[in-house]
């Protein structure tokens, strides 16, 4: 399944319901690729996380290898640096 910003515009309840559904599908073996700016949902739902900048994958990690706080910090640092342009 390929998803692009699927929680954009959803209220918190709908976003939570969506995350539960995605989790169920993941647990059933469905492959899901989701592009999102919602770091919380990415961390909670995904098994792997990638950070892209200027159309290039610049960081890749397993969700379990990074805390939400460190993920946010890495994302912000990546978006602010000129090294990835």
Write a concise synopsis of the structure shown:
The protein has helices at residues 12-27, 39-45, 68-80, and strands spanning 2-4, 33-35, 48-53, 56-62. It has 85 residues and is α+β, with helices and mostly antiparallel strands.
Alpha-carbon Rg, integer: 13 Å
End-to-end Cα distance, whole Å, is 29 Å
Q: What spatial form do the alpha-carbon principal axes imply?
A: globular
Largest sheet: 2 strands, parallel
Mean pLDDT: 93
**Strand percentage, roughly?**
15-25%
What structural category arises from helix and sheet content? alpha+beta
Helix content: 40-55%
- The H/E string reads EHEHEEH
Q: Walk across the major sheet and give the strand order.
A: 1-2
Point out poorly predicted stretches: none
DSSP helical segment count: 3
Topology, number of strands: 4
| Overall domain count | 2
How would you sum up this structure, described in words?
The mean pLDDT is 93. This protein folds into 2 domains: 1-46, no CATH class; 48-85, no CATH class. Strands 1-2 form a two-stranded parallel ribbon. The longest helix has 16 residues, at 12-27. With 85 residues, the protein is α+β, with helices and mostly antiparallel strands. It has helices at residues 12-27, 39-45, 68-80, and strands spanning 2-4, 33-35, 48-53, 56-62.
Helices and strands, with pairings:
Blueprint: E1 2-4, H1 12-27, E2 33-35, H2 39-45, E3 48-53, E4 56-62, H3 68-80
Parallel strand pairs: 1-2
Antiparallel strand pairs: 3-4
Which terms summarize this structure?
single chain, two-stranded antiparallel ribbon, 85 residues, alpha+beta, 2 domains, two-stranded parallel sheet
